[in-house]
Amino acid sequence: MNNRKSKGWAPAAPKGVLATVAAKSRMRRQVQRELTEIEAHAPVKRRNDLAPRLEFFLMPTERLKPASRQVRRRDATQSARMLASVARFGICRPVLISADQTIIEGHGIWEAARQMRIAEIPCILVDHLDDNALRLLRTTLNRLSETGDWDPETLRIEFEELTVLGEDLVLTGFEMAEVDTLLLGDADELGAVDAEALPDLCADAVSHLGDV
């Protein structure tokens, strides 16, 4: 008689759980790769002036010069959003400029100021870097401004409270379809649909002459 205990049968994990675990695992590996890459390219020697004294002042809008090579493009929608933001809040973020009054970061604000005929705009002078570092800084700031993820739950709460206060959420830069999806929870409902199963739902569908 065989007295060995048979291995307990373990039910298969739900497909959704496996997908979630796999996604989190891929995300952890991706983050680790990125951190390793950043560390490998980190400067051997850091600057002594990590918080340089930057000069803040108002500069005549027409005296500023755009960068000869702009790495970011703005379409009509983005320009309209910038104009709406300035009209509602004013210019609350200074434009970064070099010693020769060339814009490092803030072309969208500058263009909006010109269209709205604003005579002077707030600027910060960055004069502690050489030309090569300024070029690198321009691309770095543009890239860093678009990275990072939103916290959907926190953003939903913020949108709900702003809606109660009567504020126009379009001014946030989000499209109303995105706002509605977040507030109404459509994203969760759409995510629950198995796209591969959709063809099967219509596999037995039959139409007849006269059907509407």
How would you describe the overall organization of this protein?
The protein is α+β, with helices and mostly antiparallel strands and 212 residues long. Among the domains are: 55-144, Conserved hypothetical protein from pyrococcus furiosus pfu- 392566-001, ParB domain, CATH 3.90.1530; 152-191, no CATH class. 45% of the residues lie in helices and 8% in strands. The protein has 8 helices and 4 strands. Strands 1-4-2-3 form a 4-stranded mixed β-sheet. The radius of gyration is 27 Å and the shape is flat.
Quick structural summary:
The chain has helices at 15-40, 76-89, 107-115, 131-144, 152-164, 176-184, 186-191, 198-201, and strands at 55-60, 95-97, 103-105, 120-125. With 212 residues, the protein is of the alpha+beta class.
